[in-house]
Design a protein that fits this description.
Elements (H helix, E strand, L loop, with lengths): L1 H13 L1 H20 L7 H21 L1 H8 L2 H7 L4 H31 L6 H25 L5 H13 L2
Helix pairs in contact: 1-6, 2-3, 2-6, 3-6, 3-7, 6-7, 7-8
Length: 167
């Protein structure tokens, strides 16, 4: 839990990731809204895919930072040498990613509802989003740990992540 708190405090203090992920997600929504002819008949077929794309791209941006910052600042070696189990480190990073993505989704979902004209207050929709985000978080954290150890980490995470999370 301390690791989760530390990561959240670092993100709150810097604000760079929060702002960039939110702006990126909003841009995806606006671009698709202008690019596609969204009629009430087509919205049920189009909106879920666009929402998924926005969440997946935002997740990739957010999760790429999970281990990279630790590695660049030398904190990863300290974490691995500490008496904390590697499972706890992974779960702490995954929980941080989950909380961050749920926050982003809470902002993006109402925007999508307004732009695409669908109800965002469905328990089925919210439950599906929470479960999908949990999966995104676990898979993304694993691949983020792998990608952080490579020289081409910026491209490695999407290359590993997107084929696995495709519906």
């Amino acid at each position: 839990m301390v690791l989760v708190w530390k990561d959240i405090l670092l993100e709150v203090r810097s604000r760079e990731l929060v702002i960039s992920v939110l702006v990126f997600g909003l841009l995806v929504a606006v671009v698709f809204n202008f690019a596609l002819d969204v009629t009430p008949q087509r919205v049920t077929a189009i909106a879920p895919g666009i929402l998924w794309v926005a969440f997946a791209f935002a997740a990739t941006m957010a999760m790429s930072r999970a281990f990279v910052r630790e590695r660049e600042q030398g904190g990863l070696e300290g974490l691995l040498l500490s008496p904390v189990s590697r499972d706890a480190i992974f779960l702490g990073k995954a929980l941080t990613n989950l909380l961050f993505m749920l926050l982003v989704e809470m902002v993006l979902l109402p925007v999508f509802a307004v732009l695409f004209g669908f109800s965002a207050m469905s328990f089925t929709l919210i439950g599906t989003i929470v479960l999908a985000t949990l999966g995104f978080s676990l898979v993304g954290t694993l691949f983020s740990a792998i990608a952080a150890q490579t020289r081409s980490r910026e491209i490695m995470l999407p290359v590993l992540f997107f084929p696995v999370i495709l519906p």
